[in-house]
Amino acid sequence: MSDEIYIGLMSGTSLDGVDGVLVALPVDGAPELLAAAYLPFPEVLRQQALALQQPGENEIHSEAVLANALARSYADCVQQLRSQAPELAVRAIGVHGQTIRHRPELGYTRQTNNPALLAELSGLDVIADFRSRDIAAGGQGAPLVPAFHRAIFGQPGVCRVVANIGGISNISILHADGRTTGFDTGPGNVLLDAWIALHQGKAYDENGAWAAYGTVIPALLQALLAEPYLQQPPPKSTGRDLFHADWLDEKLREFPACAPIDVQATLCAFTATTLAQAIARHAPDAAGVYVCGGGAFNIRLMQDLQLALRENSSAAMVGSTAELGVAPQHVEALAFAWLAQRFVHRQPGNLPEVTGARGLRILGALYPA
Ligand SMILES: Nc1ncnc2c1ncn2[C@@H]1O[C@H](COP(=O)(O)OP(=O)(O)OP(=O)(O)O)[C@@H](O)[C@H]1O
Ligand SMILES: [Mg+2]
Hints:
By secondary structure, the protein is of the alpha/beta class. It has 2 domains: about 5-140 and about 330-365, Nucleotidyltransferase, domain 5; about 145-325, Nucleotidyltransferase, domain 5 (2-Layer Sandwich), CATH 3.30.420.40. It is about 35% helix and about 20% strand. The chain has helices at about 45-50, 60-85, 115-120, 130-135, 145-155, 190-200, 220-225, 245-250, 260-280, 300-310, 330-345, 350-355; strands at about 5-10, 15-25, 30-40, 90-95, 100-105, 110, 125-130, 160-165, 170-175, 180-185, 290, 315-320, 365. α7 (about 220-225) packs across α9. The relative contact order is 0.17. Adenosine-5'-triphosphate binds near residues 13, 14, 164, 192 and 293.
């Protein structure tokens, strides 16, 4: 592989917006970030995407309309990136798309997007639909980022965990002996965002400031932790299909008198504990846990994670991926630039030991410029 320039676009389960990076990917050594952009989704787009998480009427039409709106958002993000470095020739865009259903047990996952429109608007090769091939090979189609985490954050002889706290949380375990494993641990910000939206009318709890003044409700925390998904052995992946507002309502039915602020604090502890239990169980020798994704900015959540690791007898120190040289909000978008490069060079992008697929597979589909 030569030193090439790619664009990576990630919009995840939080439905907050699209993170984009323009990056030089060298043969050996670290990726060089050349430009970054973040475009929040317009509220109407967010609502359309949310509506499609549940079965509803006239879904084929709604999905197609959403796909076009997303492609236009992605194209705007590409435009912003390219305006920061107009002289650079971009090899291809790697775009994740917006997950509206993730049902690997039924043999499908849907990352809505209109890559043909994005190719038309950007004039660039677009690589999209990275997850389907892994599922076709019997895998979960997720998480796909561990191979990239290994490539940029791995250190021989040291066990490191990279924890991406987006809407859902996933961990990559970069074992000391060179093996890489990983899975979705459970919720990230998705329940936190839903709860503060309901009670404070805010999209998210900035820096965890609201949760910081709440008190964890131990019985509620235990009820949340009873979710069977959390005890399932990997490979496993999840999404809004399981962890949604109705799931939380159901659990809260037995706790009608709780103060909303205490529920927020408990949800923070829930995300932190699910991560810590997974790490203690599957990476007992982890020296460090490096957090990326928007959760890295939630101070209360980061404190809870350190606490929960100690409670689960893990000596791992918690930091963000910034300590390893990559800002937390750029990691996932970089991963999709990297996966696009893998596709362009017909290199596999999945790790069968992570996803459970029958073997290594080339991930993605090309929409030529
Ligand atoms: N300053 C902040 N304080 C607290 N939480 C924050 C802050 N900034 C971002 N977040 C949280 O991070 C979320 C967005 O994170 P991110 O973009 O990594 O997730 P995502 O789009 O769901 O991606 P994925 O699930 O694919 O990893 C927001 O919805 C919010 O909950
Ligand atoms: Mg996001």
